[in-house]
Amino acid sequence: MIGPGLTLGLMTPSPMPARIPGELREQQLIAQTAEAAGFTALWCRDVPLMIPQEGNVSALDDPFVWLATLAAATSTIAVGTAAAVLPLRDPLHLAKAALSLNRLSGGRLVLGLGSGDRPAEFAAFGRTVEEATETYRKHWEVLRDAMRPERHVAVRDRTGGYDIHVAPDAPVPMIVVGTSRQSLQWIASNADGWASYHREEERQQGRIGLWQQALAQRGAGAKPFIQSLNLDLLHDADAPPEPITLGMRTGRNALLAYLLRLRALGVAHVIINVAHSERAVVDVIQELGLYLTSQVS
């Protein structure tokens, strides 16, 4: 998923559905197009309940079932959760789903984990927001053991001597999405990468600096910084950038310049969300593949 330069991922389904989920065959075609265009990962959100947020209601399938259908239609591109809501899921059930998807996809899973941000969801699941910080850490420990082949003995210790699933052939990458109510020092020590959101470039540079500082303090070595980007790609290649919520409306030339600046700042992977585009998603992906993916990597 992460190369020596900057790689692109795609948020799916694309565009994000309202109350009616996207048609599967169309979404599989989009996934195949992204793979052929040089994208390195397909991502999806975990929205347990259809609670309105900023006036929108998302009808999304279970992330592991959804990504399994995309993995079945592709062969090399990574599939990732951005992010499974860790405090609301039983960690053993979550580990079972993650190990199953990783096996069925041929080892392509990236497990992104968040803490959730909708109080009504916590109430519906009999949880409280106040306990989410500690619950996140406890559940993370269970998953960390399950996602590491050398630590499966720790899984058996938790279950009275039983495995959840066969151990993965290689460690499954685990990334923290957002701050997840944790300190950057904890994230640097425990996660394989950190995913955050689109910000004005100077603010993002500061955020990346804090991440690199936390990695150095913990002696954690280099770990990727990932960001999302809501994108409305215009037909006019020379159109200047205009800000939209958590992203930009722009032509491909300004987008290329922006991505190259992100690469220089230390961003390793950008998750493109085509939710705001009036163009066909396949056309946008093909244009990005033709003119951008090889130039930023």
Number of contiguous helices? 11
Largest sheet: 8 strands, parallel, barrel
Shape: globular
H/E series: EHEHEHEHHHEHEHEEEHEHH
Percent of sequence in beta strands? 15-25%
Helix content: 40-55%
- How far from one another are the termini? 11 Å
**Physical arrangement of strands within the biggest beta sheet:** 1-2-3-4-5-6-7-10
Number-wise, the strands total 10
Rg, Å, rounded: 19 Å
Tell me, rounded to a whole number, the average pLDDT: 94
Low-confidence stretches: none
Class derived from helix and strand content? alpha/beta
Describe the 3D structure.
The protein has about 300 residues and is α/β, with parallel strands linked by helices. It has helices spanning about 25-35, 65-75, 90-105, 120-125, 130-145, 150-160, 185-190, 200-220, 250-265, 280-290, 295; strands spanning about 5-10, 40-45, 80-85, 110-115, 175, 195, 225-235, 240-245, 245-250, 265-275. An 8-stranded parallel β-barrel has the order 1-2-3-4-5-6-7-10, surrounded by 5 helices. The termini are close together.
Please supply descriptive tags for the structure shown above.
18% strand, 297 residues, eight-stranded parallel beta barrel, alpha/beta, single chain
